[in-house]
């Protein structure tokens, strides 16, 4: 690309999927009509932990209108993205309330429900395990007695004979020796409950296996290719015989990453050959039966010298993974190699341990474990600072990461890594930190955030660029634009690199494994960066083709020619040609033609990533990039009720390059408010007698509404270019909800002197803590 | 057993024989293929299914199709007139007030119902009116800004200062 100032990147171009979304034209999976589609109902376990003695399908099959019934014995295949610990339907054992045991497909939803009710399952209830401590107890019932026999990627370490599905150890320096040199040693514990993603669109998948044996799946998912790959592995199908298409997706937040309802839809489709089968969960099932975010119990020990430098840091993260850990094991891993957050700790003893329990299944959720560990670590930093009399901002600046500093895995950051110190300073300035202003029951707090993409080292994105006869550019990609703006951003990069008018670019949907190029997954805040790079590379190739043809047309050296505003220009002669004259090849006046239709494919795979050492997790480059940031909060507490109002959230992130100001503000505000939800109101409540989730509805599980939005949301950005980022950009989607709860907790402490260490921070907890404080008890 | 109903949907008179148990949402989505109204919860908690019935925003999952007999219904597909977007639709685009888009139709129609009744709402009034429409993506800030700006435009107050 030329050195000129970007024309499209960095501007508020119209979002390319906007018109279809404001007119109702955008079609989501459940909006599509499939001829003679069957409706499915899933039979789910009512027990949190039980042996399955028998599944009888005969009565269900006799219900009029039923076309297929399926249970575990028909499909005893394992599925899972990292650890294949789940079968399509439970075979010998159920592991949470909601575990699929069987499914039926019928001509009407009513017939399907009736048939599902007639599936007879004989259970032998077992003692359930609900908490990590129970799960780690020596006499704990094993949730997965076959753990040692599951297929697994080499960098996940399930421990056979226990409930541990993954354990990542970080050993840096000499923790014990350093601790002995510390003037102060401070220990605190924190916890985070399971929460749910609550996408507005519940999970839905539609499948058909045709007479020739080709399986076609239309699904609300975050990756058509990963769904295809895992379906093929599960059912032992060649990739060429499976097609996966993803229409518009109504929110995912990680809950639609990997594979979810698709195997159930595929299994029923195989039983009802030639018919489309739709599996759609209702809002209640969405809360407990598909996936949730894992719970966390964290204990941190911090050793500090007299000058406020942390010398020794111990971190113990115990993850409540629920009944299956297929995806969640990698949250455990990411939390391990990021266990020290945005700080440089010279001596670290870190353990991140995933524990199976008989709760709903933990999986990816925006932030991928980072909000949970930052809830612990950021509060710990502030508590240590306040207990030792250091200013929390100064204490952070003294200990934070930056160029030349080393992470917990021993990676030394370079000048392109991003600057958390600048983000901290910006937020502190916005909050007027340290101005001495005190008002009753009003508080300020802040917290930092860092996250890297948690993905396989070879996670790839690819794109195809091709021109239409009229010079319009089409971009084909398989990243999912579920609102974050990927298609718009891809169009910006393409228009930028080829100097096209913005409306001369079309980003094509639907992502379709038969038709569009490979992309690993739309997760990990990786698309702007990975697909953006692929677009720039493909555009370079198109540019070379266009200039080569124009060079012949003009009889001028290609090196002299330029792309300018949808034309090829020879600046010396002033001659130019519109791309329409070149897009399909250039025809001279005498009829002979050179070149041909202009198109290019290109890909991006991160370079130079090195596996973690299996014993210490040391690696010079374990991840592709880090995005750092900081958020500050101002709030007002009502001491009579314990209620508090978050009036302001201000964030600052080092994003490398702001590609689209309006979209990045949307990502920031959206993350802040989602973070506010997990901070103050969200928690899946378990009935310990039955193992059921007590609040599996939008009536009982509240998420933020317009009335909860703080009066002021502010987004600031630092632009330290990412070395391998497109025009310097790095990811931001998840980071915006990471620090919010910890910042709120600290503002609350600032306001009224109570410290809440268990999420969510409810008015009840605040009131109880205020009363305890008034009675002279501990202030937390 | 079915019942015959006649409704005017987006200006077009539709006569249909419907199951008396069928929701207005199912009638619109499945029988008329107007899928802009979404099913997010089917219990009136999320607002994704909001349509205008005689100009009033209604959760169409909670209304039976037979109850709509003789009424005038506007769905998101009918909000743009003669190819021109409604000021709310334009404001949503300008303010990036949508992300995944699943809540957008219900959000815009609820706002349209509010502005029909109260052309000059305060931000608090907009917040209250939209509080039954859940959005998990945007954090609502840009939605509130879009609605307030569209209200100003519809009052002919464009260019004047819009006080938040």
* Low-confidence region ranges of chain B: 159-164
Spatial shape of chain B? globular
What do the pLDDT scores of chain B average to?
A: 95
Please report the distance between the alpha carbons of the first and last residues of chain A. Answer: 56 Å
CATH topology of the largest domain in chain B: Ubiquitin-like (UB roll)
Alpha carbon gyration radius of chain B: 16 Å
* Major interchain interface with per-chain residue totals: A-B, 56 and 53 residues
Task: Compute the number of strand runs of chain B.
Answer: 5
Number of domains of chain A: 3
Task: Provide the succession of SSEs of chain B.
Answer: EEHEEEHHHH
Classify the helix fraction of chain A into a percent range. Answer: 10-25%
Derived structural class of chain A: alpha+beta
Question: Could you name the CATH homologous superfamily of the largest domain in chain A?
Answer: Aldehyde oxidase/xanthine dehydrogenase, molybdopterin binding domain
Shape verdict of chain A: globular
Work out the number of β strands of chain A: 32
- Biggest beta sheet summary of chain B: 5 strands, mixed
Low-confidence segments of chain A, given as residue ranges, are none
Please give the count of helices of chain B: 5
Strand order of the main beta sheet of chain A, please? Answer: 3-7-1-14-11-12-13
Please tell me how large the radius of gyration of chain A is: 27 Å
Report on this model:
The complex is a heterodimer of chains A (780) and B (164). By secondary structure, chain A is of the alpha+beta class. Chain A folds into 3 domains: 34-126 and 203-280, Aldehyde oxidase/xanthine dehydrogenase, a/b hammerhead (Aldehyde Oxidoreductase, domain 3), CATH 3.90.1170; 292-455 and 610-774, Aldehyde Oxidoreductase, domain 4, CATH 3.30.365.10; 458-604, 2-Layer Sandwich (Aldehyde Oxidoreductase, domain 4), CATH 3.30.365.10. Chain A is 24% helix and 25% strand. Chain A contains 17 helices and 32 strands. In chain A, the strands form 9 sheets. Chain A has a 7-stranded mixed beta sheet. Chain A has a 5-stranded mixed beta sheet with strand order 9-18-17-16-10. In chain A, β31, α15 and β32 (712-718) form a beta-alpha-beta unit. In chain A, α10 packs across α11 and α13 (486-498) runs parallel beside α14. Chain A is globular and about 95 Å long. The mean pLDDT of chain A is 97. With 164 residues, chain B is of the alpha+beta class. Chain B folds into 2 domains: 3-78, Beta-grasp domain (Ubiquitin-like (UB roll)), CATH 3.10.20; 87-154, [2Fe-2S]-binding domain (DNA polymerase, domain 1). Chain B is 31% helix and 15% strand. Chain B is built from 5 helices and 5 strands; from the N terminus they run ββαβββαααα. Chain B has a 5-stranded mixed beta sheet with strand order 2-1-5-3-4, covered by helices on one side. In chain B, β3 (50-53) and β4 form a beta hairpin. In chain B, α2 crosses α5 (141-154). At the A-B interface, α1 and α15 of A face α2, α3, α4 and α5 of B.
């Amino acid at each position: 690309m030329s050195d000129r100032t970007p024309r499209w990147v960095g501007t508020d171009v119209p979002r390319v999927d906007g018109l279809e979304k404001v007119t109702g034209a955008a079609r989501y999976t459940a909006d599509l009509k499939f001829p003679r589609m069957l409706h499915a109902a899933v039979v789910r376990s009512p027990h949190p932990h039980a042996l399955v003695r028998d599944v009888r399908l005969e009565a269900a099959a006799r219900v009029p209108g039923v076309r297929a019934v399926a249970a575990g014995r028909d499909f005893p295949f394992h599925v899972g993205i990292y650890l294949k610990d789940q079968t399509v339907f439970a075979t010998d054992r159920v592991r949470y309330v909601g575990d699929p045991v069987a499914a039926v497909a019928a001509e009407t939803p009513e017939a399907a429900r009736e048939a599902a009710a007639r599936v007879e399952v004989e259970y032998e209830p077992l003692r359930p395990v609900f908490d990590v401590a129970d799960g780690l107890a020596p006499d704990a019932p094993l949730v997965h007695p076959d753990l040692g026999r599951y297929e697994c990627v080499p960098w996940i370490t399930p421990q056979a004979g226990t409930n541990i599905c993954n354990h990542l150890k970080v050993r840096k320096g000499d923790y014990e020796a350093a601790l002995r040199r510390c003037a102060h040693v401070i220990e605190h514990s924190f916890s985070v409950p399971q929460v749910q993603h609550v996408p507005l669109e519940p999970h839905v998948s539609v499948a058909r296996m045709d007479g020739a044996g080709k399986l076609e799946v239309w699904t609300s998912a975050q990756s058509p290719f990963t769904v295809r790959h895992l379906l093929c592995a599960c059912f032992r199908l060649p990739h060429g015989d499976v097609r996966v298409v993803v229409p518009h997706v109504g929110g995912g937040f990680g809950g639609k990453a990997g594979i979810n309802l698709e195997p159930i839809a595929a299994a029923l489709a195989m039983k009802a050959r030639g018919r489309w089968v739709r599996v759609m969960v209702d809002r209640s099932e969405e809360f407990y039966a598909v996936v949730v975010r894992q719970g966390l119990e964290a204990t941190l020990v911090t050793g500090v010298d007299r000058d406020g430098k942390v010398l020794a840091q111990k971190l113990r993260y115990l993850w409540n993974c629920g009944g299956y850990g297929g995806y969640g094991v990698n949250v455990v891993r990411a939390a391990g190699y990021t266990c020290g957050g945005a700080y440089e700790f010279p001596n670290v003893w870190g353990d991140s341990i995933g524990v199976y329990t008989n709760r709903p299944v933990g999986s990816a959720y925006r932030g991928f474990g980072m909000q949970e560990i930052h809830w612990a670590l950021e509060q710990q930093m502030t508590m240590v600072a306040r207990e030792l009399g250091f200013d929390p901002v100064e204490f952070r600046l003294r200990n934070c990461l930056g160029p030349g500093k080393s992470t917990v895995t021993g990676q030394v950051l370079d000048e392109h890594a991003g600057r958390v110190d600048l983000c901290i300073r910006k937020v502190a300035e916005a909050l007027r930190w340290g101005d001495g202003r005190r008002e009753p029951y009003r508080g300020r707090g802040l917290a930092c955030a860092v996250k890297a993409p948690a993905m396989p080292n070879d996670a790839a994105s690819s794109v195809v660029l091709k021109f239409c006869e009229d010079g319009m550019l089409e971009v084909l990609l398989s990243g999912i634009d579920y609102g974050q703006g990927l298609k718009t951003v891809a169009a910006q990069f393409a228009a930028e690199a080829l100097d096209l008018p913005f409306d001369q670019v079309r980003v094509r949907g639907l992502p379709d494994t038969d038709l569009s190029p490979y992309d690993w997954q739309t997760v990990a805040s990786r698309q702007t960066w990975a697909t953006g790079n692929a677009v720039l590379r493909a555009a370079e190739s198109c540019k070379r083709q266009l200039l080569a043809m124009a060079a012949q047309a003009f009889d001028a050296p290609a090196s002299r020619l330029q792309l300018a505003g949808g034309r090829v220009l020879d600046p010396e002669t002033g001659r130019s040609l519109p791309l329409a004259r070149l897009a399909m090849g250039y025809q001279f006046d005498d009829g002979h033609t050179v070149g041909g239709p202009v198109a290019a494919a290109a890909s991006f795979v991160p370079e130079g990533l090195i596996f973690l050492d299996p014993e210490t997790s040391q690696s010079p480059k374990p991840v592709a990039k880090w995005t750092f940031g900081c958020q500050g909060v101002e709030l007002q507490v009502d001491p009579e009720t314990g209620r508090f109002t978050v009036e302001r959230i201000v964030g600052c992130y080092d994003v490398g390059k702001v590609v689209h100001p309006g979209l990045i503000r949307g990502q920031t505000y959206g993350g802040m408010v989602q973070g506010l939800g997990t901070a103050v109101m969200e928690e899946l409540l378990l009935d310990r007698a039955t193992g059921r989730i007590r609040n599996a509805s939008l009536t009982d599980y509240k998420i933020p509404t317009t009335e909860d939005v703080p009066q002021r949301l502010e987004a600031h950005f630092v632009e330290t270019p990412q070395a391998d980022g497109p025009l310097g950009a790095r990811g931001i989607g998840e980071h915006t909800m990471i620090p919010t709860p910890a910042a709120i907790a600290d503002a609350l402490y600032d306001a009224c002197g109570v410290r809440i260490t268990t999420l969510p921070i409810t008015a009840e907890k605040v009131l109880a803590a205020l009363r305890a404080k008034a009675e002279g008890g501990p202030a937390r | 057993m079915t019942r015959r109903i006649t409704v005017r949907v987006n200006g077009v008179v539709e006569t249909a024989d419907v199951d008396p148990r069928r929701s207005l949402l199912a009638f619109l989505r499945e029988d008329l293929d107007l899928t802009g109204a979404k099913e997010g919860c089917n219990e009136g908690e999320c607002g994704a299914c909001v349509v205008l019935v005689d100009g009033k925003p209604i959760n169409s999952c909670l209304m039976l199709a037979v109850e709509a007999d003789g009424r005038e219904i506007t769905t998101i597909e009918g909000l743009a007139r003669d190819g021109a977007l409604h000021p709310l639709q334009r404001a949503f685009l300008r303010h990036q007030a949508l992300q995944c888009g699943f809540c957008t139709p219900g959000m815009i129609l609820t706002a349209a119902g509010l502005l029909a009744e109260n052309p000059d709402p305060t931000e608090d009034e907009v917040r209250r009116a939209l509080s039954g429409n859940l959005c998990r993506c945007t954090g609502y800030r840009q939605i509130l800004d879009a609605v307030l700006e569209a209200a100003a435009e519809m009052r002919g107050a464009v260019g004047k200062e819009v006080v938040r």
